[in-house]
Amino acid sequence: MNTHHGNILFAHSGGVTSVVNTVAATIYRLAKAHQRKMFISPYGVDGMTQHTFIDGDGIAEDEWAKIHITPSSAFGTSRKPFDNSPKALERFFKNLQDLNIRTIFINGGNNSQIITQAIQEASEAYQYPLQCIGIPKTIDNDIHKTDTCPGFGSTAKYTATSVYEISLDLAAMCFSSTQVLIYEAMGRDTGWIAAASALAKKHPYAGPHIILLPEATFSIKSVIEKTRDILATHKHCVICLAEGIDDIDGLLSSAKHQYAYKSLHLSDILQKELAIKAHTVIPDYLQRSARHLSSHVDVMQTIALAEHAYLIAEKGKTGLMACIVRESTTPYTWHTSHIPLQDIAGKTRYLPSEFISQDQMFVSDACIDYLQPLIEGEEQTPYVAGVPDYSQFIYNNIAKKLEVLK
């Protein structure tokens, strides 16, 4: 497929991370070096539908440098599905033709890669010469056949650091105030982020003491009893759970209309059953946008994946997603590769059973060994007036989006 001399379209899709802009900036750098024009689809699928593409050359070089280190998406993203109706596709490919776009990079998670695959299949049906390349992105780390996903290492580092710090806080106050602290990490379907809290346990007394995962099997009664035992030994207990957990009796999910978060429900249960004071911490968006606490390994892998995606496009490949292959854990070595979109699109990678402790309320040493290298190293964030010096390009896109919607 000799399509790789045309222009490029880049889009973010799905939830943001602290490194998605690094992908966009890397692809732009490579396109410019190869004298190719890169267009960006603002707000992901929305831009494709509304045909309001941004010309990457219209962004100043110093702004691209800021975008490279800025969390979230400077161009906006969307969770909408791709409109593959005949009328929409006809207009979509007409716009690609007018702009001489021959390559699309979509930076997104497992469900977002369904969009990449759908565009690939549509281009074949319409006989439009187009390369569709996926670049993985998710803090949930749940994409099949890649050892890890850009954004996860930094979120894991944020989670471990936060749980480490709140564990120290709880220990200092446990004899006169709160004794149980519950930290609710993101993870609707998988427990990768919650599992990373185990990296905070630097001392036998330190939290987390309990980790509850969607892939584990446990009862509320067992959580109560383990918490009781930990309090008897340590006087304080830190519990980290993934938002998608449920107990074997379905008690936590049964009260979803009463509790916005399962951590709040569990807190009420433990306070009632153990007659103690419990507190909850819900980091929510904080855990996915904390570029100031990003992992160096995560950033390096993000750049390498973007470079690999560009390389396979230059070689005329299509229908693939770039991925990370772990060569060794100790020492930690890895390389980039690629896999067919059809092997990963829409599929979920769960924690393997060997990563869960025997009592189903913590993680195994194998899990800790897997996670530890992913949070190594620190990135330097520039500061101005005491806060990070990030790009504010997203606000320009909001203004343009509002004009389109009028």
From TrEMBL:
Binding site for substrate: 138-140, 186-188, 243, 285-288
Site (Important for catalytic activity): 137
Keywords: Cytoplasm, Glycolysis, Kinase, Magnesium, Metal-binding, Transferase
EC numbers on record: 2.7.1.90
Residues noted as binding diphosphate in the record, renumbered to the chain: 15
Pathway where it operates: Carbohydrate degradation; glycolysis; D-glyceraldehyde 3-phosphate and glycerone phosphate from D-glucose: step 3/4
Major localization listed first in the record, in broad terms: cytoplasm
Mechanisms controlling activity: Non-allosteric.
Required cofactor(s): Mg(2+)
GO molecular function, one term: diphosphate-fructose-6-phosphate 1-phosphotransferase activity
InterPro entries (UniProt xref): ATP_PFK, PFKA, Phosphofructokinase_dom, PKF_sf, PPi-PFK
Catalytic reaction annotation: beta-D-fructose 6-phosphate + diphosphate = beta-D-fructose 1,6-bisphosphate + phosphate + H(+)
Location(s) in or outside the cell: Cytoplasm
Positions annotated as active site in the UniProt record: 140 (proton acceptor)
Record-annotated Phosphofructokinase domain positions: 7-306
Binding-site residues, Mg(2+): 110
A Pfam entry, by short name: PFK
Function in brief: Catalyzes the phosphorylation of D-fructose 6-phosphate, the first committing step of glycolysis. Uses inorganic phosphate (PPi) as phosphoryl donor instead of ATP like common ATP-dependent phosphofructokinases (ATP-PFKs), which renders the reaction reversible, and can thus function both in glycolysis and gluconeogenesis. Consistently, PPi-PFK can replace the enzymes of both the forward (ATP-PFK) and reverse (fructose-bisphosphatase (FBPase)) reactions.
Family affiliation: Belongs to the phosphofructokinase type A (PFKA) family. PPi-dependent PFK group II subfamily. Clade 'B2' sub-subfamily.
Subunit and interaction comment: Homodimer.
Protein name as catalogued: Pyrophosphate--fructose 6-phosphate 1-phosphotransferase
Native organism: Candidatus Synchoanobacter obligatus
Gene: pfp
